[in-house]
Amino acid sequence: MKAVEIGDGYGIDALRFVQREPVALGPTQVLIRVKAVSLNYRDLLVVNGIDRWRPPVGRIPVSDGVGDVVERGPAVRSLVVGDRVAGLFLPNWHSGKLTPAKLQRSLGGAAYDGMLSEYVVLDEQDVIRVPASLSYEEAATLPCAALTAWHGLIEEGRVKTGDTVLIQGTGGVSLFSLQFALLSGTSVIVLSSSDEKLERVGQLGVQHRINYATTRDWVKPVLDITDGKGVDHVVEVVGADNINQSIEAVAISGTISVIGLIGGLKAEINTEKIMSKQIRLQGIEVGSTEMFASMNQAIETNALRPIVDKVFAFDQAKEALRYLDAGRHFGKVVITI
Ligand SMILES: NC(=O)c1ccc[n+]([C@@H]2O[C@H](COP(=O)([O-])OP(=O)(O)OC[C@H]3O[C@@H](n4cnc5c(N)ncnc54)[C@H](OP(=O)(O)O)[C@@H]3O)[C@@H](O)[C@H]2O)c1
Q1: Tell me: the pLDDT tens digits for 148-192?
Q2: Is 288 inside any structural domain?
Q3: Closest ligand 1 atom to the C-alpha of 242?
């Protein structure tokens, strides 16, 4: 089978295309013919060997992929040949609260192979069926970006009709957050560095749009839009210093879903304001299988279609990663296999 793996060194250029034998099937495992994968910011952290995401040589990157079950081990009970399934980002987290044990395995990270491969072998517990309403390319966007957005806004955030939600950016997590926020009947404000992307956000039904590159003090317009009150929920994909602006922009007793680290891993933040405004800073890790099942149901019921920006062929995997790295995408970048 063909696959892409980490070569001698880090960076997109060091990735290598290889031929491998699929690993032998265990009793509770299934062989999946991967049809499409989608890229996340985290895949760049892995490929570039950053911090705790640094993988060894030979690791297959990319967490999110979907395909068909083509063979199953003798003890597999929950799946049949032909099922369309996605790998789970955190396969140990089936339900309930997050624990250290549930965080231990993550697909396509430092310690476990990912999905950028023609075939993968996974335990039946490590996959979930995807909505029949979605193409392979659309379904491949769900395991990380969509589930994180769902977890932050719906499962933990419990946003409701009439709330105001501030969304930073127009990447994968951001546009799923936008779609789930609109489904929940909230009023949405989107920040982007691009007027063209903000135009597209307007076509999705978002009235309030701010260019954070030209309006560096975006807190002021956010407060104007909310009559000085601030927003009920911030989807924080930037992190680090940026959280200080979110603290200013959020309402008293509002929530900030701390999801991203585009701005860095650490910062000095205004703890006094967190206290006096009674702000809830809510850290979000992707999500559980149980949450994924609820999200799939919402996607089917509401005929929601993930926003796929561009689809690349397998032999263009490096170009696809470069395209993501350049930050010109709107929604998800996908590779078909
Ligand atoms: N905690 C978790 O479990 C989890 C799960 C998924 C992702 N993440 C993290 O969340 C972040 C986003 O991931 P992703 O895959 O959605 O990335 P992505 O598709 O690459 O999107 C990143 C977006 O961030 C926006 N952005 C960059 N700087 C900004 C700023 N200063 N203010 C506002 N927006 C800004 C950009 O929007 P414009 O192009 O419109 O300017 C860009 O499109 C990453 O840090 C990732 O590691 C965490």
Answers
A1: 999 999 999 999 999 999 999 999 999 999 999 999 999 999 999
A2: no
A3: 31
